[in-house]
Structures are given as C-alpha cells and as structure tokens.
Amino acid sequence: xxxxxxxxxxxxxxxxxxxxxxxxxxxxxxxxxxxxxxxxxxxxxxxxxxxxxxxxxxxxxxxxxxxxxxxxxxxxxxxxxxxxxxxxxxxxxxxxxxxxxxxxxxxxxxxxxxxxxxxxxxxxxxxxxxxxxxxxxxxxxxxxxxxxxxxxxxxxxxxxxxxxxxxxxxxxxxxxxxxxxxxxxxxxxxxxxxxxxxxxxxxxxxxxxxxxxxxxxxxxxxxxxxxxxxxxxxxxxxxxxxxxxxxxxxxxxxxxxxxxxxxxxxxxxxxxxxxxxxxxxxxxxxxxxxxxxxxxxxxxxxxxxxxxxxxxxxxxx
Length: 317
Hints:
The chain has 317 residues and is an alpha/beta fold. Helix content is 34%, strand content 17%. The protein has two domains: 4-131, no CATH class; 143-303, 3-Layer(aba) Sandwich (Rossmann fold), CATH 3.40.50.11660. The protein has helices at 65-81, 103-116, 143-148, 169-184, 233-240, 252-256, 270-280, 284-304, 306-314, and strands at 4-10, 31-32, 35-37, 46-50, 90-93, 119-122, 129-130, 156-163, 189-193, 215-221, 244-248, 263-264. The longest helix has 21 residues, at 284-304. Residues 61-73 have low confidence and may be disordered.
C-alpha cells in the first residue's frame, strides 16, 4: 500500500518535531493505515495546520502603501510554510476552545484559513465545519503498551494535574475551585506547574502517567464547558491511565464515550466539593466503571485518535 505523507504546521512550539504523533500508533515512523505522519518533511502529500495562528497585520501607517506591504508580507510568509501542498489537501484544525478572551482571534484564524485550506474545523459553532477535536494524548507510553495493558495497581484515591494559568475567567474560576477544594479537607494529590504559592502541591510533574496511574479517580476539569463540541486531552489522559475521571466539561464527552466511563462533576462550588468527597471516599465507583473504562480506552486509541481521523479523511481523495 502506498501511504500518503502528512506534514504538520503548528503554533504550539513543543509539537514541532519530526516524530509528532508517533507514540499514537503501533507501527514505526508514524504509520497508520494509508498515511504516515512526518511533521517536518519538506514535501508532504497533505498538510495539517494544527492550531496554527495566522499572523495578523499590524496597524498600517497609511491607508494603502503600509497596509498592502504588510498584507503581501504575511501572505508570502504563509505560502512559504505550506511546502507546495495544494489548498484542497491542507486541513486546518483549531484546537483551543471559544473562550470570550480568544473568540475574536479564533474567528480571524478561521477567516484566514479559508484562503489556504480545503478543510477547516474547530470545536465551536463558528468554525466552517464544527466538530470534536480528534484525540491526542500526553502519555509517553507506547501505543501497544496502552492498548494491551491490564488495569494497573491503584493505591491512592484521587489526583488533579493542573496549572496556575489565570489569563481567562474560566482559568480563575478553576483556581478558585482548587482553593475551596483544598480548604475543604477532601483528600487528593495535586500536581502542576506555576501554581499559586497557597496551593498545597506535590510539585511539577514531567510525566502525567505517574500522577494518574496509581489513582482510582482523577479530576479532569476543562477550561471551557459552554458548548457541545469541546473536549480535550484532560479526559483522554485520565482514561488511558485507567482512572475514573470526575469530569467537568460540555456535553461532547457524552456523545463520544460509553455511559459510565466517567463521572460528571455537577459544578465548581460546594455541591461539586461534596460530590468529590462522597465519590472518592471509597473505590467502589471505580470498580463499577472498570469495564466501561476499558471500552472507552479502546475508542480513544482506535477511533478518536487523530491519526485515525487523518487516515479516514485522506481516504476520501
């Protein structure tokens, strides 16, 4: 079978490696079905623009001359990044949620993507093709390991891996809930980077696996819960580590995963704290959900996987 080579372009600096997504396939060198993912290859057959932020023109000094020069420069810079891939073979996937603080920037990205891309999608109603974001995960385990492993030994009740980011109202709401949860005395282990000084944490963790795998439950709290499209790696990472997620987010997860594979945190307030306290008091809910977790893991690995999405999309050509 002749595989199509997929390149990638992203504004996430940490993703710009030739081996991006290779851990999401059991085959060598990023192969999955009819495609091979080679993020930085010079002449790919297809190009994935993954959360790429188009440069925005600066304010022109004159109505015509300055504006046109900036526009031409931006267009030249973009075309040089597309590696000669024709428009119909370029896919644009916006990953970030439509938070109020970034909504206008997201809309501008969608508008500019229409000049260069044949398919444009994102997890919001403003996208040309609203859709769930295909799954990526942040465990370093091999695909075969995740696919074949039995439930690991669970020894602690609950963990939460988060950050101290406070740029948006949603981030600040999550930090307020964290403070209330710690004050309540509910037992859970906190990991993360740039957390406030008041946060009682174990510290920053290099591999999320070690902050999830030994725990029955994991708090998976999205930055955004306001539509029926957005769901992120917070849920995938938790399930792949065989945790039962206590999930706060929109309704997308209900459509993608089997019933019982995660628990719904009702709210980020005292009611939510009481729910966490009740659930994590015993491992009973985890044992009841074990088979649903097993099924959800297979769906994430084989169906929701971004490589599988790319393979199915490219098969249409």
